[in-house]
Amino acid sequence: MTGRSGPSVPHVFSYESLVHAVAGAAGGVTAMTVFYPLDTARLRLQVDERMKSSPTPVVLAKIIREEGLLAVYRSWFPVISSLCCSNFVYFYTFNSLKEIWVKRQPSTNSKDLVMGFISGVVNVFVTTPLWVVNTRLKLQGANLQNEDIHQTSYTGILDAITQIVRKEGVLALWSSTFPSLLLVFNPAIQFMFYEGLKRHLLRGRTELPSLEVFIIGAIAKAIATTVTYPLQTVQSLLRFGQQKKGLESRVLGSLRSVIYILSQRVKRQGFLGLYKGLEAKLLQTVLSSALMFLIYEKIASFIFQIMGVIPHVAD
Fold it and tell me: Residue 138 belongs to what domain range?
């Protein structure tokens, strides 16, 4: 185990947690920008019932043909802003918990899972309004066919927030909170596998090669995404504004709403409808997550080196 230079006082406002948060935010923003069109294809497949399951290149070609080249980068800024805040909150919370809880003790997969879960819960309550807004902006003006969805006309993030609060109430900004809370298992599972694989590969070494970081980041995200994908579909629909008669409580995305949406998706499209868009989601999240972890590790390592700080590493 590598020690820290200077006295070690676990603290939620530590310099080390801030470095990890900044590096995680930068990695996430860069990776999402590179693979953003894949996320556009995934979201369209999830909410547009008219669009049949097709290979990702076919979906992107259809969007570009019908709506123009820039359509695949629609609402890029709100998404990037939300992702930057989300990654900052998650990485800061995770590394603060790691510093406080793990301290000088060996870390384990179970500890990683618990820390990832707690970090996810904090992240959901802090950033859900941003994700509700960017989901609506991303689909605004899209050529959709879904009887449960009503188009919007927002001019930007602040206008969207203002209109949602005025027309639907402040709690509408936390639509999809329930499935989002269930989905905290996604990053928790991802971080558990990533940290576990990283510890295993780091034995006898101080730093992993870039290729290994990329690979374990991809593996961790692929597992987490496949396990939780049906709930991600529910989350997307609730964020956009599911307004079907009989769906009594979409605010906060209650368990009843989640079950209703899942059952309707199976009824209309079959069991495989729950995984519609999974290919695009795996391409986007696996590649972007792998790139994010690679950039995150490099930025954090670089900052620690130039500042002469040796970060805490659990055995």
Answer: 15-307
